[in-house]
Amino acid sequence: MEAIEVTDLHKTYGNTRAVDGVTFTVRAGETFGLVGHNGAGKTTTVECLIGLKRPDTGTVRVLGEDPARRRQALAQRIGAQLQESSLPERIKVAEALRMFGTFYRKGADWRQVMERWSLGPLARKAFGDLSGGQKQRLMLALALVGDPEVVVLDELTTGLDPIARRETWRLVGDLKAVGTTVVLVSHYFDETEALCDRVAVFARGRVVAMGTPDDIIARTGTASLEEAYFALEGADR
C-alpha cells in the first residue's frame, strides 16, 4: 500500500525551477529519505506534500488525499517537523504538548507522548532554556502528539552535536518500530543511509536515483551514499 504518491511534480519560483518533474512513492510503514544538498528541491517537495505549497503541475497524494485541497483534513492524520520550527522562548514543555494536543480530534495523550520521548523531567522547563537536542526532541514529540499515520521530518538533526544526533536517530528508529510512515529530509548522507529503507536522491530539482541505500551505492560503484551522490550529481550535469 502506498502512503504517498508524487507524479511529475513541478514547482517554479520566477526563473528558478525548484522542483522539475519529481516522481516517487512511499510505502506505508517505511522510512523514506529525500537526500541531497541544500537547494536540491527537497524542502519544496515536502511543502507540497503537506499542503503548504501548491504544485504548478503534477499530482501529489498523501493517504489518498490531495494536500492542496484537503490540507485541514490531512492535518489530522499527518505530523510535520519543519526545518525552521520554533516556539515562544518562555513556553514550557508540558504547556506546548498540552496545547498541540488540543489541535487533534483523536490524538495521543500528550502526557504519554511526553513520557515516551523522555521529556517528563523537562516538563516545567522553558523552551528557550532547552539544549539543542532537547529542543529537537520536543519538536519531534509535537509532530507526533496527533498520533499521525505519516510524519515528515525536515533536516531533523541540523545543528545537533554528535551525541544528540545519535539519540535523535534512535527516536526515528522507534517510529519505524510502531509502523509510522516517515519521510526524512536531510542533507546528511550518513543519516539517510543509516535510517532509511529507501531514498530519493535529489539534484537540481530532480530525482537522479531512487532505491535502497545499498542498491544506489552498488549501482554507482562507490563506497557510501555520499560518494554515490557526487557520482550521480556529476553525471546529471
UniProtKB/TrEMBL annotation:
Localisation: Cell membrane
Protein's membrane topology: Peripheral membrane protein
Keyword terms: Antibiotic resistance, ATP-binding, Nucleotide-binding, Transport
GO terms assigned for molecular function: ATP binding
Gene3D superfamilies the record matches: P-loop containing nucleotide triphosphate hydrolases (3.40.50.300)
Keyword ATP-binding: yes
PANTHER family: ABC TRANSPORTER ATP-BINDING PROTEIN
Protein name according to UniProt: ABC transporter ATP-binding protein
Organism, as annotated: Microtetraspora malaysiensis
